[in-house]
Structure formats: structure tokens, C-alpha cells
Amino acid sequence: MVDRRIPNLHDLAPLMQFKRPTFDLKAKRLREALTIEDLRRIAKRRTPTAAFDYTDGSAEAEISLRRARQAFRDVQFNPAILHDVATVDTGWDVLGKRVEQPFGIAPTGFTRMMQTEGEKAGAAAAAAAGIPFSLSTMGTASVEDVAEAAPDGRNWFQLYMWKDRDRSMALVDRAAAAGFDTLLVTVDVPVAGARLRDSRNGMTIPPSLTPKTIIDALPRPWWWVDFLTTEPLAFASLDRWSGTVAELLNTMFDPTVTYDDLAWIKSQWPGKLVVKGVQTVDDARRVTDLGVDALILSNHGGRQLDRAPIPFHLLPDVVREVGGDTEVHLDTGIMSGADIVAAVALGARFTLIGRAYLYGLMAGGREGVDRAIEILSVEIARTMRLLGVNSLDELEPKHVTQLERLVPRVRG
Ligand SMILES: Cc1cc2nc3c(=O)[nH]c(=O)nc-3n(C[C@H](O)[C@H](O)[C@H](O)COP(=O)(O)O)c2cc1C
User: With a 6 A CB cut-off, is 302 part of the ligand 1 pocket?
Assistant: First the structure.
């Protein structure tokens, strides 16, 4: 038998939680995004299809990216119980200086096309979070602008070696003069990957107004207001360009670059040198023997070779081969802080986020990037605590089992 009674207003009052209406819709939208995937959904709603697809898409059948993300989802964590995890430290030294988180922002081209605040928002948000920001050769803010947006930040410059060596190195000299302490040399773009979404969308730089793009713009007026009322989109470091991305890459980039060129760049650059886009154990060994300060296991977010090696699967072998001699970093497919913890447990010293940052940028400019960094940081700290560790040093391979659905066939 249940005793029933007339509800009493006095008892109900504390249960009623009507929130004050908020007029800051951006803050509300970002607060309600709990994961990077949530930010992606907001980004998709607010960004014209061509710009969103340029960011979200990858090469050919997009297998490289799907597999890389799946590999992270196929992680089993093995927690240790009954540890005092009241405090947790998510930072350590990367390339000789402390980072507050084991991730930084990857170099991305054309960033102001996704959202007009672009690289300056990324650099300022990274500086505020105590993590590095990387500026691409194809950036839409200059090295000087980025240095000004994040004077206390740790800024890295990414180089695509282009056919005109003198001009490439002039750009590198500008980066050094603006205080950039690390050079990432990207080596996985001898030619442009086949980004089919861009071809299908007729994506051009800058975006062109066609009947299709105008119709697509109608539900996204704020993107266009931003775009049309701010500084025109241009490469900050390159000449003006009009044409497709693939045409630009193929015209500019040098398919003849070899190990000798890498050694030459190393001899020219006074700071830390990192090679981005290593995809086999053999190449990891070769670049390490050249004396680089770190290598990044990456398949460019799946935007170049499709069906490429999965960086996260390659990690244990590469760490075993060269981990004692150089830092091993990793990117491609990171969508949560747990992905980053798994990579650190298997020996990565650092990771980079490309799309996770850009989804935040498209969802809400600078505040959106802050939110993306916050989501990942909170996930990292919580995962570490749940694993029973207080610091990144305590993360070990035993904390992770890679459940492999794609196991290479062993011949003969
Ligand atoms: C829109 C976009 C533009 C990119 N542009 C560059 C670039 O100019 N230079 C470069 O080295 N990598 C570039 N990348 C690759 C990223 O640096 C990084 O390797 C990749 O995004 C990591 O994968 P994730 O997006 O899954 O995090 C770009 C990636 C994206 C998504």
C-alpha cells in the first residue's frame, strides 16, 4: 500500500529549476556541446557545404580516416583500481618545454574560410590553454599576425617545401624572426590527394558565388555576413590564387623533395625540427638517423593516400624502434581525450588535432576553439583518473589493449 497525499507547493519549489533565459546563444550552443562530435554537428549546420566538406572530408573513399578513427574506438582501457587520483597532471615536456596538455593544434590551410577568426583564434586559444599552435604554409594569417595574436604562445611553423627554395626559406626565416621555435616539415604531399568531395562541390579558393553556393548559403546567413564583412580571404604567405585546391597544390609543391632536401632544411633551421607524415617503421628510422627532434606519425588526416597505414596501429612498433632516440608524435583521427590518453600510453609524447579544432572554430570562432580544447582536456583528466594514474609518465602500454579488427595477413 502506498500512502498518497495532496502535493504541497512548499515541497515542489526546490525541485523547480527554471533557468533564466540566456541571450548569449553562442555560449549556450557551445556549453551544450559535450563532445567533439557535438561540435561537428553544430559546425555542419553553420558552415557552407563546400567549406565544411573541405574540412570534414578526406581522400578518395575516405578509408584512411575512417580506419584511423575506428582504431581509437577499438581501444580497451585496462584500469588500475584503488589509487589516490585526487590530483592529476596532464602536462609534461615536449621538445624541451612544458605543455599543459599532451596535444596541440595541427597546421591547417585556408582556416579563415571555415570561420573568419581563423588562425588567430586558434593561436590565442592554444596560448591560453598552454599548448602549441601550428601555422600552415597555406595559412590565411601571416606568421607576424599569429605572433601578435598569441605573443605568449608557443607557435610552430609548418613548411611545405615548394619549388622555389629561396622563397620557402624566406618564409621560414620570417617564422624564426617572429619567434616560432619549431619547424614541422610535411612530407606526405608530393602531389595533392584526391579530395572527391571538393571536386563534387566545385570547391574553389576563394569560394565562388554560383547558383548552387547561393542556395546553400540561405540557411547559413551568419557565415556569409562574417565572410563578406571581414578582410578578404587570401593566403598570408603565398601569392593570390584562384583555382581549385588540387591545382594550387600541384602547381606549388615540389614532387622531387628527398631525404637530402630534409637534411638541407635541417642545416638551415636554428630551432627544433619535426617531420610530419611518417608512415612506416623504416622511414621513422631514417628520419631519426638524420637527427630530427621528433617525428609525427600521420597520414594527414586521411587527406592524401587512401588506405594508408593507421598511425595509432603503427605507434608501438615505431616507439620500439626509435622511441629511445627521438620523440614520437601522432595525429589523424583524434576525436576525444581518451584517444589522446591511449596514444600516450602506447608511447606517443605528443598528439595534434586537426578537425577537432576546426569543428570548434566553425561552431563558434575563438570560443568554439576554447570549448574544443576544454572538452578534450576534461576527457583526458577524467580518463587518467579512471585508469588510476596521476601523471602522463605513469601511462603505460599495459593500460591499453588494441582490439584489432583489421589484422595484417601474415604471408606464408
Ligand atoms: C582542413 C584541413 C587542412 C589541412 N591543411 C594542412 C596543411 O596545410 N599542412 C599540413 O601539414 N597538414 C594539413 N592538414 C593535416 C593536419 O595537419 C593533420 O595532420 C590532420 O588534420 C590530423 O587529422 P585529424 O583531422 O583527424 O585530427 C590539414 C587538415 C585539415 C582537416
Answer: no
CATH architecture for the domain at 39-72+91-381: Alpha-Beta Barrel (3.20)
pLDDT tens-digit map of 203-232: 877 777 788 888 888 889 888 888 889 988
The b-or-e profile of 260-277 (16+ CB within 10 A means b, else e) is ebbeebbeebebbbbbbb
pLDDT value of position 296? 98
> Is the pLDDT at 109 greater than 80, yes or no?
yes
Q: Is the CB of 297 under 6 A from ligand 1?
A: no
- The 10s digit of each residue's pLDDT in 233-275 is 877 666 666 667 667 777 677 889 999 999 999 999 999 999 9
Q: Domain ranges in the chain? A: 39-72+91-381
Is 300 a residue of the active site? yes
d(CA 376, CA 69): 15
What would the DSSP string read from start to end of 155-198?
A: EEEEE--BS-HHHHHHHHHHHHHTT--EEEEE-S-SS----HHH
**For 204, phi and psi rounded to 5 degrees?**
-130, 160
Quick one: cell of 340? Answer: 589522446
- Model confidence, pTM: 0.95
Atom 10 of ligand 1, nearest CA residue: 107
Hey, whose CA ends up nearest to atom 15 of ligand 1? 300
Q: How far is the CA of 9 from the centre of ligand 1 (A)?
A: 57
Average pLDDT over residues 130-135: 98
- CB of 333 within 6 A of ligand 1: the answer is yes
The one catalytic residue in 10, 300, 313, 399 is: 300
